[in-house]
Structure formats: C-alpha cells, structure tokens
UniProtKB/TrEMBL annotation:
Xref: CDD domains: YjeQ_EngC
Pfam (any one): RsgA_GTPase
Domain (EngC GTPase): residue spans on this chain: 73-222
Record EC number: 3.6.1.-
Protein name: Small ribosomal subunit biogenesis GTPase RsgA
Quaternary organization: Monomer. Associates with 30S ribosomal subunit, binds 16S rRNA.
C-alpha cells in the first residue's frame, strides 16, 4: 500500500498528499475505515491510487497526538509565534501556551517575528528573553516575515515535520506561512459562523513546503488558560526546566513543601523568576512565594 497524508479536511472533501509523487488526490475512505475513526488533517493514511484524482483510503495510522482546536493530528512542532512589540510581548500567555502544547505532546518551539522593527535596546531585551527560554530548554528562532530574514533557517529547521502556527492575533502567523510556502496564499477562513453567531474552528489546511514539510495556520487569540486543558496538579510536569530537579516529595508542587529543589534552583538563578512566577499564577498560588527567592 501507498502512504499519504491528509492535508485538507472540509466536510466530505479529504485532500490526500501522496509522498511518493507529491501529488494531491481526493481521498475516499473505505467503509471499514469510517467505522473505525473520523479522519482529520494530519492523519497518515494507507491505500491505493484508484485513478488520476482518487486515492482509496484503506487504513489510518495510529495518531501520536491530536490538537483539538484546530482539529489536526500528528503535529511534530507547534510554532508559538510571539513579537516583542506590535503586539506587546506577553510572557504569561507564552508560558500558558508552552504548557498546553507540552501537555498535548506537540513539541512547542518559540518564534519571535517582526525583528525588523526593533531598535538596539529592544534587540537587547529580546536577547534576554531568548536566553531565558533557551535555558528553560526551548528552541527559539527569530525571524522577520516582512524582510524574509530567518525564514530559510526556519524552513531547514522544520524539514519533514507537520507544523502548526499558534499565537496571539497580529503577530504574523499567516505572513510566516506565506513566506514558508513561497506564494502569497489566500488563506482559507478557518472559522465559520454557527447558528448562535459564535465562531468555531471547523478545519485546518496543511500546506506542503520544502522537503516533505507541512504547515497549518490557526486564527489568533488573546488569552489561553492552561487549566482549561489540565489539572492544577499537572502543570508542574509541563514546565520543562522543572523536570531537571528531584524534590524531596515526588509529587512536590514547588510551592510550600520542604526540600523543594525547584525553589532552590529559582533561588540560585538556574530557573528564571519570570517562569516560576507565571507557574504560580497559572496554578493560582500566592506569588509572594516567589518574593523570598527572587529579589
Ligand atoms: N514589521 C513587520 N510586520 C509584519 C511582519 N509580519 C507580519 N507583519 C504585519 O503584521 C500584521 C499581522 O500579520 P498577520 O500575518 O495577518 O498576523 P496573524 O498572526 O496571522 O494574525 P491573525 O490571523 O489575526 O491571528 C500585518 O499587517 C502584517 O503585514 C514582520 O515581520 N514585520
Ligand atoms: Mg492569520
Ligand atoms: Zn519542588
């Protein structure tokens, strides 16, 4: 059987990208497949080419992860796009997003866009945030979609991966996508009005680019609450740098317990106060706990 990737899922239309010839077919799932599961963008499918335009889907591979909003499977990397300004950098939103994508097992990486508009002191400030997140264990890339800087490196970095753009409105997600894919796309509306007049995400389109890489856009948002996805007690597992330390109690919440190595690390400057403070904010703990550790 041949292997393809569902890159477009809209109502009854299933777009399948076939790896061996990089052509896009209309996917028709066999009944037994439909019985097993729904089909989403990001699903790896096995089947046969029936004619020039049609691919019969015989089977779907098991998903390694699934993002609910937008519904897309097998995401290798989430590009969390941020800007230092326009819009103003919001590290609380970033830390929530990082925790959520860690939780969904979708490997978040940080992309700072609009570096073209920064003056010297702002560049220094960005450098500080870059170092902070790198030492927490995240890859950080800096780009300008407008001036096309850093895009080639980003393309290289995403080789062979299924990626999703995420981040607040106006940071340049769609602009980055256009640069990566190499054409000015009319990005399809990903939301549609329900009868109540609310917007809901119905699908996502993955665009092939480079060497079997795929990227999908998402609409922006202004806030995300990690506790919508996970329990308070779990948040500590999705702050990457915390996992380097072994506290006296294995279920230590890094708040008031004795023998907490995470707090010790904050005190020594190995874990940043900004990250630790946001952790406390996310779990709705008293942030004065951080006061004694950070001056
Ligand atoms: N100066 C500068 N402006 C940029 C850059 N990238 C995007 N912009 C501008 O920022 C604005 C928002 O860009 P979009 O790509 O629409 O942002 P988005 O993240 O897709 O926004 P939503 O779809 O609302 O979530 C547009 O006016 C872009 O022209 C950049 O690298 N530098
Ligand atoms: Mg957009
Ligand atoms: Zn602890």
């Amino acid at each position: 059987m041949r292997k393809g990737l569902v890159i477009d899922r809209e109502a009854q239309m299933i777009g399948v990208y076939l790896f061996e010839n990089k052509k896009i077919y209309r996917g028709i799932p066999r009944k037994k497949v439909l019985k097993k599961t729904k089909i989403y963008a990001g699903d790896y499918v096995l089947g046969e080419v029936v004619d020039e335009n049609t691919f019969a889907i015989e089977d779907i591979e098991e998903r390694k992860n699934f993002l609910v909003r937008p519904p897309v499977a097998n995401v290798d990397k989430v590009l969390v796009v941020m800007t230092l300004k326009m819009p103003e950098f919001d590290n609380f939103l970033l830390d929530n997003l990082l925790a959520v994508y860690e939780y969904l097992n979708a490997d978040p990486v940080i992309v700072f866009n609009k570096i073209d508009i920064l003056d010297e002191s702002e560049k220094k400030e960005l450098k500080r945030w870059e170092e902070l997140y790198k030492s927490a264990g995240y890859d950080v890339l800096k780009v300008s979609a407008r001036e096309n800087t850093g895009i080639e490196r980003l393309k290289e970095y995403l080789k062979g991966a299924i990626c999703i753009l995420a981040g607040p409105s106006g940071v340049g997600k769609s602009s980055i996508l256009s640069r990566l894919v190499g054409i000015q796309l009319e990005t399809r509306e990903v939301s549609e009005k329900t009868e109540r007049g609310r917007h809901t995400t119905t699908g996502v389109k993955l665009f092939p680019f480079g060497d079997n890489s795929f990227i999908g856009d998402t609409p922006g948002f202004s806030s995300v609450d990690a506790l919508y996805f996970m329990d308070k007690k779990e948040v500590r597992l999705y702050f990457r740098e915390f996992l380097r330390y072994k506290c006296r109690f294995p279920d230590c919440t890094h708040t008031k317990e004795p023998g907490c190595q995470v707090k010790e690390a904050v005190k020594k400057g190995e874990i940043s106060c900004e990250r630790y403070r946001n952790y406390l904010k996310i779990i709705k703990e008293d942030i004065s706990i951080a006061k004694d550790l950070c001056q």
